[in-house]
Amino acid sequence: MSEVINNTSVYEFTVSRSGGATENLSKYQGQVLLIVNTASKCGFTGQYAGLEALYQRYTDKPFNILAFPCNQFGGQEPGSDNEIQSFCELNYGVSFPLFEKIEVNGANAHPLFTFLKKSAPGVMGTEGIKWNFTKFLIGTDGQILERFGPQTKPESLIDIIDAALA
Length: 166
What we know:
Mean pLDDT: 89
Strand order of the largest sheet: 4-3-5-6
Largest sheet: 4 strands, mixed
CATH architecture: 3-Layer(aba) Sandwich
Shape: globular
Number of helices: 4
């Protein structure tokens, strides 16, 4: 039996930052968010550079990127939270928020991702996340605007982000 999710926006979730500090997503209220499940040893790992470029592009706007490392796809995120943080900073200059490694599918999926998947199903209505670097664009009201597959490059989201910020 699947868990019933009664949350009405992403702002109702609590998550843990890399390093363990608990954070309520309500702190991002009024911002456009790009929530991404990530991995350091994936064919899409180079998207960290594109994500950082987006983050820098909108540094003066109400926009943020929230990255959630996940090891559920081919064991492509085997490191500890500290190792992941170091890898992202050293190799891609990542300065946007990184959170603790989580699961995005299955019985132990983080409630935030259960909500995201239910609110914005993928291709043909499937809820499961298929791979690393699935992206969810969230409007300033905390509602999901759109879901993007791993093959969607961060730089291709500029027009959509601009529209969400308008």
